[in-house]
Amino acid sequence: MIRANTSREHTNREYEQELRKLRELLLLMGAKAEEIINGSIRALIDRDSALAEQMIAVDRKINQLEIAIDELCMQVLARRQPVASDLRFLTTALKLVTDLERIGDLGVNICERVLELNGEPPLKPYIDLPNMTQEVQEMLHEALDAFVAADVERAQRVIARDKNVDAYYTQIFRELLTYMMEDPRNIFRATRLQSIAKYLERIGDHATNLGELVIFMVKGKDIRHAGKLSDSG
Amino acid sequence: MSANSNGKAEPAPKLIVRDLTVSYDGKKAVGPVSLDIVGQHVTALIGPSGCGKSTFLRSLNRMNELIPGCRVAGSVLLDDAPIYGPGIDPVAVRRRIGMVFQRSNPFPKSIQENVAYGLRIGGIDNPQEIAGRVELALTQAALWVEVRDRLNDSALGLSGGQQQRLCIARALAVEPEVLLMDEPASALDPIATAHIEELINELSESYTVVIVTHNMQQAARVADYTAFFYLGELVEFDRTDVIFTKPSNSRTEDYITGRFG
After folding, report:
1. Which residues pair with B154 in a beta bridge?
2. pLDDT for B107-157, tens place per residue?
3. The pLDDT of residue B207 is above 90
4. From CA A162, how far away is CA A208, in angstroms rounded?
5. Where are the alpha helices (DSSP H) in B32-159?
6. I want to staple B16 with a disulfide (CB 3.0 to 4.6 A). Which of B77, B89, B136, B223 is the partner?
7. What is the pLDDT confidence band of residue A8, given thresholds at 50, 70 and 90?
8. Which domains does chain A have, with CATH numbers?
């Protein structure tokens, strides 16, 4: 059973059902976002254009879930006037879907670059990009787990990992620059790979946002634009 | 528990309640409660039926003494002066701490006489002064415009919401400093309720208001501070925005989110 809030159930079962449904939809959307990250990079490595197309279809599902979740949140806000942890859960859900939806869009951007790259011979073997993808994918996965378990420490570990992603991006960018300087014919492919790395870096930022949202949901404390949970207050 | 749970400086308390315990026939109904009620603000008392919030409210102007078998221990200070104690006249206390009840209970008299009644009891008999004070009280209760042309009509001909505002005017006529309200809007329709809530907001500019309500959204709308009572105990007292977004006690959380039994 998925429980993001307190362990006790609402006296009103219909309300309880609505919140449970909301959690399930959010997790389904999160799973789709993970799928699109993994699939798009596998499409790159395996030069699998069919898989890239398939992932673009996954994004349409993510968009439908965004609308469904927004509608459900509106309905609960209008009908139940949630307060305290329920209110924080609802406002968190509304923001969470925005980050997840953006992750889906970035996944589509990766697929578009993959389709372009697949029309060209491979530039180089990929080493850092798969590692970066794994880091980003784990961050997203951990952020969703932290959401389910209402686990502040796990959410903070997600936030701390963002600097690893940034480091990968800098590294990949530097390497691609040398390829471009070596031979201008590499520029078309190198800029596409650089874009893909940038998309992954942005996905890392969205996973970081999810971690911050989880901390707000659990502790009622907004830590955005500060980076870490302060002990004061 | 004190109002200053967040450690910040708060406005001066109008009422200071210390270790107040109320029992009926030797059975404890509420307490011990310690609480500071901030002047010229609205404090809401919330909690399930039987939690002691109305008993607590009534003990703030010695209304409980009218109930046989009721005993009150502890202290309540109004502007640092005790309201319980030998030689203190409960009627004088109630003149400074007025009360409005759940069911509007106008006297079967004219609108004018309902408001003037307390003044006459208080020894005012100058008709001009009475007329002036009646107009002022009805204006403060946001009823004057609706009734000024029919002050001599029976109060029982008014609508429920108007009757309740008349009772508020009656309480205000004797110029109290504190207004206690026991579910003042629970028998009213949403529009009349909105009028009363707006009125509470306006009254808090000059009066200290303490309101008991079952409607948590109402507490969230009108109160600056909220106290949550459960099983005769004060569980949590804090600023209303804190109570409804991030309460510190899990029982408060369970109650306001609807997770109680």
Report:
1. B110
2. 999 999 999 998 998 888 899 999 999 999 999 898 999 999 999 999 999
3. yes
4. 7
5. 53-59, 90-96, 111-121, 127-140, 144-147
6. B77
7. confident
8. 14-219 (1.20.58.220)
Sort out which chain B residues have CB atoms less than 8 A from A82's CB and list them: 257
Rounded to a whole number, what is the distance in angstroms from the first to the last CA of chain B? 26
Kindly list the residues from chain A whose CB atom is less than 8 angstroms away from the CB atom of residue B246: 84, 88, 220
Give the type of residue at A54.
Q
Fold of the domain built from segment(s) B13-256: Rossmann fold (3.40.50)
CB B219 within 8 A of CB B240: yes
Instruction: For residue B11, give every residue at least 6 positions away whose Cβ sits within 8 Å of its Cβ, in sequence order, or none.
Output: B38, B39, B40, B41
Using DSSP bridges, classify how beta strands B225-230 and B42-46 pair: parallel, antiparallel or unpaired.
parallel
The confidence score (pLDDT) of residue B66 equals 85
With H, G, I as helix, E, B as strand and everything else as coil, classify residue B181: strand
Interface test with B, best of A83, A86, A232 (most B CBs within 10 A): A83
The predicted-structure confidence for A177-208, as pLDDT tens digits, reads as follows 999 999 999 999 999 999 999 999 999 999 99
- Contact yes or no for B131/B113 (Cβ under 8 A): no
Tokens, residue B247: 């309460």
Given B244, B246, B259, which is nearest A8 (Cβ)? B259
Give dist(CA A105, CA A92) in Å, integer.
20
Question: Which residue(s) pair with B210 in the sheet?
Answer: B43, B180
